[in-house]
Specification:
Number of strands: 11
CATH architecture of the largest domain: 3-Layer(aba) Sandwich
Shape: globular
Structural class: alpha/beta
Strand order of the largest sheet: 1-6-5-2-3-4
Mean pLDDT: 86
CATH superfamily of the largest domain: HUPs
Number of domains: 3
Radius of gyration: 24 Å
CATH topology of the largest domain: Rossmann fold
Largest sheet: 6 strands, mixed
Length: 387
């Protein structure tokens, strides 16, 4: 195998099924159809999504076609994988709103010339009850209930709705519809992707190979995800993106270099040796944050964001530019909500109780009144000026 294929099957990859077959496919020169499905359960794609998007891009760079499937049907079910309770079902309006900018966001990573974007509704919009029963008949109840999530919920007596049992089959049919050669996904998607292989066999199609990506840990130490709000969005503003990247644990620096940047792995290994030899993790993390911003905003924007970060966090100075906001309220709790510095009054009160809000450099309390010209700071990096 050439170096590109070796990196494709290794960088950010947790498991490959069937590895030997996929190696043969890649070595054959055949143009493969490589599938990745994303449920529009939130409006923002983040660096966790970008792990598999970057793997998909490496397939494109080798001459293969990426097929990005927007799960406008599966999103209405809610992926039960790893969940201990039934997810709320999204409405069609919520799905459309979340989907609206997915193509634009994904194009920051993928090559549009080798990209198909498909919506599940293209085929499921034509399905009737008979079609659902026909596809369901091709998978055994034993197979579906062998899913670890389903098995655990049944064992523990937790609710398991019938529509959740259909989720793996619905996702699997996408592979039949587009005749996928390879499907990508996170480790939590393993069962759904294996179900794709099962359903393809029943349709007399060659089963897709599977490439499972590693998880990217979020800013709170858990798997990065939209529902946990611990993510770094790929459309985040440069300064915010860099600042969030600087908050990750030192132990995750090398993992982020592998999963969230394009820095060659030889360089990453050299950085690992520098850290082992006693290099300051903050300096290596700064390089990491700049590399992440560069990928999505360019080198100049990364340098500017880095300079601003030094000014605020190292030199304890105010930002170069502070947004001016007009408000109707005077009470600090109402002002925080009105300016969207807090999502709710309860969250605003929590920030004040934790002494996380300053008005004109003084720690604020719930009794603080806000006057025109006041400078409000929330946390270390959020500043606004009231007019």
């Amino acid at each position: 195998m050439n170096k590109q294929i070796q990196e494709l099957l290794a960088r950010g990859v947790a498991e490959v099924i069937d590895r030997k077959h996929l190696e043969q496919q890649l070595d054959s020169g055949k143009e493969l159809r490589v599938k990745l499905g994303i449920d529009p359960t939130g409006a923002k794609l983040h660096l966790g999504h970008a792990v598999v998007l970057r793997i998909l891009r490496r397939f494109q760079d080798l001459g293969h076609t990426a097929v990005l499937i927007i799960g406008d049907t599966t999103a209405s079910i809610g992926d039960p994988s790893g969940k201990s309770e039934t997810r709320p079902q999204l409405t069609s309006n919520e799905i459309e709103k979340n989907f609206a900018t997915y193509e634009q966001q994904a194009s920051k990573v993928l090559d549009g010339k080798r990209l198909e974007i498909r919506r599940q509704s293209e085929w499921f919009g034509k399905f009737g009850l008979g079609d659902v029963i026909k596809e369901a008949s091709k998978l055994s109840a034993g197979w579906i209930t062998s899913h670890e999530t389903f098995r655990n919920r049944l064992k523990e007596g937790r609710p398991l709705a019938l529509h959740e049992l259909l989720y793996p089959m619905v996702q699997a049919y996408d592979s039949v519809a587009i005749k996928a050669d390879v499907e990508l996904g996170g480790l939590d998607q393993k069962f759904n992707l294996l179900t794709g292989r099962e359903l393809m066999r029943s349709h007399d199609l060659e089963p897709q190979d599977i490439l499972l990506a590693k998880y990217l840990v979020g800013t709170d130490g858990q798997k990065m995800g939209k529902t946990l709000n611990n993510f770094i969005a790929i459309e985040e503003e440069p300064f915010e993106m860099l600042s969030k990247a600087m908050t990750i644990e030192d132990s995750l620096i090398l993992e982020y270099f592998e999963l969230a940047t394009s820095v060659p792995m030889d360089e990453v290994k050299a950085l690992e040796q520098e850290l082992a030899a006693g290099a300051n993790p903050r300096d290596i993390k700064k390089r990491l944050a700049e590399e992440i911003v560069t990928l999505y905003h360019g080198r100049q924007a990364a340098a500017q964001a880095s300079k601003e970060w030094e000014k605020i966090f190292s030199n304890k100075e105010k930002p170069s530019e502070i947004e001016e906001v007009k408000v109707k309220s005077e009470n600090i709790v109402d002002v925080l909500v009105e300016t969207k510095l807090a999502p709710s009054k309860s969250e605003a009160k929590r920030l004040l109780d934790q002494k996380g809000v300053r008005v004109n450099d003084e720690v604020a309390s719930e009794e603080t009144k806000v006057e025109s010209g006041a400078l409000i700071q929330v946390g270390k990096r959020k500043f606004i000026k009231i007019i």
